[in-house]
Every structure is written in structure tokens, then in C-alpha cells.
Amino acid sequence: MKLKFPMVAIVLEVAMIILFGYFVEYETEQINLQQPNTTNSTKVDRFLELHSLFQDVHVMIFVGFGFLMTFLKNYGFSSVGINLLVAALGLQWGTFMWGIVHNHGQKIHIGIKNMINGDLSTATVLISFGAVLGKISPTQMLAMTILEIAAFVGNEYLVGEIFEASDIGASMTIHAFGAYFGLAVAGILYQPSLRKGHEMEKSAYHSDLFAMIGTLFLWMFWPSFNSVIAETGEKQYMAIVNTYFSLVACVLTAYAFSSLVEKRGRLDMVHIQNATLAGGVAVGTCADMKIHPYGSMIIGSIAGIVSVLGFKFLTPFFTTKLRIHDTCGVHNLHGLPGVVGGLASIVAIALGASKTSTMAMQAAALGSSIGTAVVGGLITGLILKFIVRGQPSERNFFDDSVYWEVLYSVLIKDVSDDYISECFVQQKPKCLSAS
Amino acid sequence: MKLKFPMVAIVLEVAMIILFGYFVEYETEQINLQQPNTTNSTKVDRFLELHSLFQDVHVMIFVGFGFLMTFLKNYGFSSVGINLLVAALGLQWGTFMWGIVHNHGQKIHIGIKNMINGDLSTATVLISFGAVLGKISPTQMLAMTILEIAAFVGNEYLVGEIFEASDIGASMTIHAFGAYFGLAVAGILYQPSLRKGHEMEKSAYHSDLFAMIGTLFLWMFWPSFNSVIAETGEKQYMAIVNTYFSLVACVLTAYAFSSLVEKRGRLDMVHIQNATLAGGVAVGTCADMKIHPYGSMIIGSIAGIVSVLGFKFLTPFFTTKLRIHDTCGVHNLHGLPGVVGGLASIVAIALGASKTSTMAMQAAALGSSIGTAVVGGLITGLILKFIVRGQPSERNFFDDSVYWEVLYSVLIKDVSDDYISECFVQQKPKCLSAS
Amino acid sequence: MKLKFPMVAIVLEVAMIILFGYFVEYETEQINLQQPNTTNSTKVDRFLELHSLFQDVHVMIFVGFGFLMTFLKNYGFSSVGINLLVAALGLQWGTFMWGIVHNHGQKIHIGIKNMINGDLSTATVLISFGAVLGKISPTQMLAMTILEIAAFVGNEYLVGEIFEASDIGASMTIHAFGAYFGLAVAGILYQPSLRKGHEMEKSAYHSDLFAMIGTLFLWMFWPSFNSVIAETGEKQYMAIVNTYFSLVACVLTAYAFSSLVEKRGRLDMVHIQNATLAGGVAVGTCADMKIHPYGSMIIGSIAGIVSVLGFKFLTPFFTTKLRIHDTCGVHNLHGLPGVVGGLASIVAIALGASKTSTMAMQAAALGSSIGTAVVGGLITGLILKFIVRGQPSERNFFDDSVYWEVLYSVLIKDVSDDYISECFVQQKPKCLSAS
Questions:
Q1: Of A378, A415, C183, C242, which one has the greatest count of Cβ atoms within 10 A?
Q2: Do B77 and A209 touch (CB under 8 A)?
Q3: CB distance from B301 to chain C under 8 Å?
Q4: Chain C residues lying within 8 Å of A114, measured CB to CB
């Protein structure tokens, strides 16, 4: 089966080229056609204006998500590598799907908005990737990218165009959706050995520092994520400011509760890497509403607390009782805070912070996002399990050496016994697989 | 005392929310109030214009300072983690303090300038953090954040509003201030074991590479730091260009002198990580003056030399004779180059490069910054030592495991004796604590 | 000879300060002189407009190239450190050389364009650095920086001003030039021990992750690299969009072929770190032409394939048969894709995608770039070998400890035999040098 992955990747890329050949054009072609005597300055100027916010989001996708998932000691190559692969496919497929749905099958004219929507579609898949990290093959991830983005674009159309709900930072349509989709897939792909904790599912000192690179780039650029599709001017300004203050407040409560729930009052790197970001998720839906800076800080504070408690109490419960193993704890970083975000928007609208949507439509959007995600995730999980196949065997979970050429460093006693020397071998030495 | 840290963090966050509730509003509310019929476009448009420079500074605060301090082999979690915690509190408190002082107690309207000032206030604390790194508790750092920003804002008001001195890149008000404040605190918290070099105060190969991530992001974005609060147009242009050329020149002299002062002509990572940045500090005060590109290069060259010589000769002297232990050598990166920056501005004004300030006012600003920092630092040190308390014991200095859940990797001989296997344990094995 | 490096660095910096003192002025001085009554807003405003794209390129130079080369397990300090040193000199020398040639000896007025050209000149040297990484001294690299930028600016003038060829993303003038220049130098500095694979020329797990930081920042910001000198508006828009789609397609084919060419279908980190970027190189020359998004995707797909095949088949051939050892495989990332880029532009012009250049002029530009690079590289190699000298001895290749203070971690058996303790020593333990 060694030809399966390259063949799938090549066929998908050829398919993308054909789709783009038929459906995608430069932005300027449309304008030149319609108004032959005007300059095409407006849309193209707008391009560079939003380019800097777009770049921030782009960094979140590749460095942010990619490195956040490198926390496992033997799964760094796959985390950052499969993240890049999935994102490269997702950007193409997301650009196409979003464009074709919103243009009702007409030609897509590539502007900065399409590229932003490509990144946002991809973010959804990368969140779900966190739930199944270490337990899925690259080929399965390619298939999941195609399926999930289709479901995502469908739900996003429903929420935005039919319900006309407000979700500027996509707490519901990206974060809650991605988390519950991933959990549904993880439930289908569950294996019994995950229950007691897999011996390879551990972080190491350096892998936790690599993960902090991801955390920090996500944290710093989250205001751009929540504001990039906002109306320029006041709305965009508020989306940046609200997200900024939600995030800073979230850090304080995440640290406080991380220390509170640990026996000796120590901090847990898992909480710091993840729960400090929950404020960005939770403020997403109402980021462009007049919730006031202190309102954002309250939302962020709650998100930090909810996220840490989720890691401490819900994740073990999910693993042991619900047979859903969530590798990165995406339920605590994206799922719960996404739900908090949806609920916060209902409260905000009740308090008069926005008139662009109604409480009922927000509730419908939240329900639709979770519902579509769970159904889509279950179907996708079944397709991956029975049709795509190729899941790694349990004992190879969380292990880069299944998909990557890895040189193992082994330590061998010198004859002189003075030093212990370091050698590099291709086969995983048996001692490393002992617990 | 395991409840102390979470309680302090929660109380501080609640206090911030209350302060923001009473004193902080959106920028647009002010404008709408005063000019009900005009659009609020001006200030909000300005927001996105400066947003890209602001993001650069934001990256310096979190990734730059955070990773620069990860050079210690067993203190990476605390370096990057407490950096994030301190910054999150500092952004809130700095925004509030700066706003309330400059608005004379009136409501603060959050714009990009306030957010920039929040970052700048925080930078000051993070510089001081470098001096006490590894020898202070998270709770003490929270207290120091509150106290130092209050002193910082006071001195900054004095320098800018009373002396009307020029300090666009804040060589004096941030860098010299932060360094001498930190040294004063470090002097109070000194412990005898630091004299001979603490066994845990070492870098490792990988921790030095992590630190270079910090160095590079600081280096690349320093022109934004020095220009972000400059007048747009010519002044901002000059601040960027001057800082850029000071930095490139500084790299050459820092490398040359690092090699010169080492016995075998080798380079020292400590110098490369820090002294290459001294050019950014030293050109700060006169960054927006007409000092010509070659003038910037002379300032940068001098800063690189001064900084390396400081690391080689002053730091050991401070540790052994003055009983001031400066973990990251902030005196060499921020203190001395900050003083060079203040003196350079006096020379520049004498040579006619600027008419916005006088030599006497620049000297007053330098004196005030150092004086306020030392007095503020001594008072803060005493408060931390006798009132806040909770400093880690000497033998736990520079050790993440005091505040973090850390899994230690230990190597245990296999029964078969062929390989040495790796296990992870929660307790620090005794062999690791042997020198 | 321990004084050689610092003396060379200091003399070069002094020379730069003198050159800048005589030839370089602020942009505003020119304007004030010529039009005393107008504001200098135009050029200075343009400065901040392009500043965000410039920053992206700046990050590529320092973090991108710097960390991409940290993949070797014992050469991370030199990779990121000499990269910084070379770049700091290259920015000054490149700014001067480019300015003086294009201004025909007149004064250079520093604007954003000069700073961008400084970065681009430097990129060329850093590409060549990849070919000789680990086999050359810092002093030799300083000399190579001076010589190569002179040759680069000469060729760039020929291509742009004489041939009037189109090469917006510099596939030919930077990438092909840098690669073939580096290969020529590597050929001259070849040592027999490289043939069988040097024992220190290995990556380690963590060093490969550090390298991915470089890969990702290069990948994400490549659209800025290819568009930063493009005409604003439509041309810049197309350069960004075309590069973006070439890169995403390239990732898919690079992954597919990496898996295809490996015996067990695994992925190889060397391919992922490098070949995923080939799409950015190959689309460079025609990035601002109307090649359509699907055209970019075809170019990117081909580049990914060519690059992986180059690593698999050409690099071993070069090492063993041609006696050219290319440490980072720059021929596969920059050389071949650069040639593909030149050829693609000929095809694009043939198909009517651009009228700004002719097929013949593009061919001349490609020939000139490769020819100048090879001749310049051979001359430079001979100068480095026989005049500058100081190349490390073969057994010290790929070893940081020749130029850096490095503490080695050695593992020593405890008397109790229970644990193995870790100590840090200054001398490389002999066991580490055993294979």
C-alpha cells in the first residue's frame, strides 16, 4: 500500500488544477470585462490593505497550529508536517468550495477575501486534526480535509446566508464546528489502549517549548483572526480591541486555575499552551459588538476558567467513559469556548450590544454548527475507518517513525566505561518502546 | 501557601475588570459624543495604519523577550510562561495607568496608541524580569509588574511632559529604566550562592537555539519599536532607517569583540544573543533626529562593543563585588546601551541634529530615569522580600520544577546492558542535582 | 590567527561607515533640495506602504534562511549565527553596491527600495552559504559576501538594464545565481572525506524541528518576496496570488514524491523542509505575468517534483562524481527551480502572458545569471582557498565547537549505578567523535 498516499496526493492536486482551470480567474478580469474604461484600482488596492491582517492569519495556520501540536515528544514531524500538507490542500479546496457556493456556481475571482476564506476553511480542519493527532494516517487526513471543508462550507452558508446570524470571529462556525467534528471522528477511530494512557502520548521538555511557539503566534495574532472579515472601520476596530482584551484577561484566569487544580499548586504546560487562547475563541462571535472592553475581559476570564476545568475534568471523562480520545484537548480550547462564544452573543444581543442578528438566529447558528459537525464527523469517521482505511495500528500511535525517516539516538556504553556514546540508528531500539 | 498565587492573579484580574468598567471606553464613543454628525473615520482609520507596526512590537514582547530568556537549560517554561503572564497583566495595567495619567483622570478611549503604550510599559517590566530571572516567584513578579509600571509611568510623564525631553525609542525611559530597576531588585534579592555560579545557571545547546528565536524577532522588529510612537512621515521614516543601520553595524562589532575577548577567539552565544541588539537600544533616543545613516552606524558600532565588554568584565564584577546578580545581563543589553543612547542624544543635539529638546533636558531625563529606577527598584525589592515574600529557596533557583509540572527524562541501564532506556519521572533524580 | 576574524569584521564595518558617510543620505534631503516648497510626503508615505512586505522579506532573511540551515545536529549556532553576521554585512554592502550602480555613482538616498534591495542582495549570499555550510570559516564568509554581492549586482544590472528581461521574483538573478555561485565555491573547497558522508553531517530530531521554523516562515512569506519590487496595483496583486498558488500545489507534489522515492513510502524531512519551497522559486520570474492561477499551480507542481528528484538522484551524483558537495541541497531548492522559473517565463511569453520582455531576452538573462554565477563562484572559491584561507580542517566540518563556546553534555554513570548523570564539559568527549 506504499503507493496509496502519493497517488491520492497527486490525484487531488490534478483535480485542484482542473477545477481552478475551469472556475477560477484573477479579480481584474471580471472588472475589465464589466467596466472596460475604469481602472481596477478599488479591489486591488483593498488587497494590500487587508494583506497584513491576512498574513497574521496565515502565520496562525502554519506556525500557530503547526507548532502548537508539536508538544508530543515523538510526533513533532507529523504535527508540523501533516499540518502543512493539510493546509496546502485545504487552502485550494476551501477557496474553491467557498467561492463556488457563495457565487452560486459562477466563476470565482480570486481576491484577498477568497484567500482569507481559504485560510478559515483550513483552520476548521486543523482544529479537528488536533482531536485525532497521532491516531490517523496522512491519507486519511487528506480525505478528511475534503469531506470536512464541504460540511464546513455548507454549515457556514446556512449560518450566514439563511439564519443571517452574526459570527464574525467564527466561534461557532469554525471553533465549535471543528472541535465537535474532530471529536466525532475520534470517537469512531477510538482504540481501547487509549483508555489507560498510551505510553508514547507524552510531552518532553523541548517539545513543550516548541509548542509554545505555536501558542504565542496564535495568541498574538488572534485579534487579526477575529477581525479579518469584519467591515472596515468601527467594526474591525472593535473586533481587534475586544479580542485583545479578552485574551489578556484569559491568561490571568488560566494561570490561576491551572495552579488551583494541581495538587501542589504548580502550573501545567498543557493548560498554558491551550487555555490562554480560549479567550480568543470565546469572544469571537461578539467581537464586533459593543460589549465594551470590560465585557470582553469578563468573557475572556470565563473562557480561561472553563478551558482549564475542561482539561482537568472533562478530558479524562471523555476518554474513559465516552470512549472519545481528544489528543490535543480541542474540546477545551475550541469546543467549550466556542459554545461560550455562541451563548455570549445571545447575552450580548439581549443586552442590546448588537442589532445585526437576533437571539433566536444565534441559537439556531450554534445548534446548526454543533449538529452539522457531529453528523458530518460521524459520517467522515465511518468513511475513514471502512473506506479510506490505513489507520496506524495502536502500538504505532503518536510515533513519527511510521511516516517519517527518523534517526533514533541511542546511547551505548563505551568499552572504557568512562563515557556513554551517542549513535544514530534507523530502527527504533527496543528499549525505547519499553514503558 | 499554594492558594496565594491563584488568589493574587484572580484578585488582580477582577480589579482590572472593575477599573476598565469605570474608566475605559471605545475610541468611537468619544467622537460620537463630541461630533454627532461626523464619521469617526479619522482615528479608526489611523488604527489600521499603525496596526502593522504595533503587531511587530507585540511580537517582540511575547516571542522576542519570551524566547530570549529561554537560554537557561532548566528554566524555559518559566521564561516563556511567566513572560506571558507578566505581559498579560502589564498590558492591562499599563493601558490603564498610562491613560489615567495622560488624561488627568478622565475616561480613557482605547485606540492603537493606548495599546502601544501598554506594550511599552510591559517591555520595561520584562527587561527587569531578565535581571531577576530564576530567582523570583510568579506571585512576586505580579506584584513587581504593578509597582514597576506605576514608577515607569511616573518617570515617563516627568521626562515627556515636564522636561519635554526627546526619547522616541525610549533608550532612557524604558531600557535604562528597566535595567536599573531590575538591578536594584536583584541586589535586594541577592543570595550568597550566586557568587560562585549556581550549578543550574547553565545553558544547553538547544536552549541557546530557542533563545536565538527571541533574539532574531527582537532584532528584525526593533525599527518598529523605535518608530511606533514617532510622528508619521519624515520622523517615522528616520526612526526606522536609523535603527536599521545602527543594528546592522552593531552585529559586526559584537561578533568582532565576542571573538576578541575570548581566549581562543571563539564566539560566545551570550554575546550574540544580546549584544547584537544593543544597537537598537543605543540609537533609540535620537532615532528620529537627523544623525545620518553613518551616524547611526557609529552609535550601533559603539553599542555592540560596550555591550560585549559589559558581559565580559562588568557582569562578573557586579556579581562578586556589588552583590548584584543579573541573570540575563540586562545591564549590558539595556542599561549601558540605554545610557549610551541618552549621551548620544546630547551629542546629537550639540551637533544640531534636533531642535525639539535641549542638552540639559536630555541630561535631566537620563538622570531622572536612572534615579527613579534605582529608588523604585530598591523599594520594590524590599516589598517583595518582606511583604509579598515567597522567593524560591537558593537551591531551587533557575529550576522550572518548582512552579511547573515537569517530567524528567532519566536514563536507566537495561538489564540486558545493550541499551540504555529513557524513562520519565516526576521527581528530579538526585544525579541531576549533582554538579 | 585568532585576531584575523575580529580584525576583518572591524575593518569591514569601518569601511562601510566611511562609504555611507560619503555616499548615503536620507531620502528627504534629495527632495528638499530639488523642490524646496513641496512636502516630502510622497516617497516617505510610500515607505510605510511597502514596509509590511519589506518586513516579511526581512523575516525570511533572518529567521527563514537562518533556521532552515539549523537542521544539522551540531551546527545550529553557526547556521543561525553566521547567517546573522553575513546578513548584517550584506545589507550594508548590498545597499551601497546596488545604489551606486543604479545611481551611476551619484549619492544614494535611502528609501524602502534600497532596504529591500539590500535584503535581496543578501538572500543571494545566504543561498550560496547553504552550499558550503559547515565547511567554511566566518572570515571566509565575510569575504564571500563582499565578492558575491559585487558579482550579483553586476549580473542584475545586465539582466535588468541591458537585456531588459523580466524577473520579478528573481528566480534567475537570485535563486539560480546564488545556487550556482555556491556550487562553484563548494567545488573548489571540496575535500575527499565528504564523498562517503561525513560522520557529523547528520540531523537530529530537534534540529529538524528547528529547521521547520525556517521552512514555514519562508513558505508563508514567499508571496511577499516575489511581489515586493513589483509595480503596485495589478502587477503586485498577481505576483502575490500566483506565488501563493504555486506554493500550495508544490506542497502536494513534494509530499507525494518524497513518499514515492523512499523505499518504504515514508516521508523524508529533507524534502519537506526544502522541496515544499521550490514552487516559490519556480514561479518567481513569471509571478507578475498573466499565467492564471492554474498555470501557477502547474509550475508549482513541477517544481516540487523536480526538487525531490534532485535531492534523491542529483545530490549524490554531484557529491561522488562531480566532487561538488552541496550541504543544504541548494541546487534542488534554488538552482533547478530557478532554471525552471526562467524556462517557464519563456513559455509564458510564448503563450502571450506578458509583453514586457521577449523570449530571447529571458534566455539571455538565464544564461547570463548561470554563467556569471559559475565564473564568479570559481574565482571566489580560489580567492577563499588561496588568499583568505582559514578553512576548517576536514575533521572539524559541521562542528560548532570550532567557532563557538559549546558546553557538551556528557552522560556519566553514577557510582550507585542507578542513574546516569549529566555533566557539561568544554572539550568534545572522544566518544562523541567515534562513529
A1: C242
A2: yes
A3: yes
A4: none
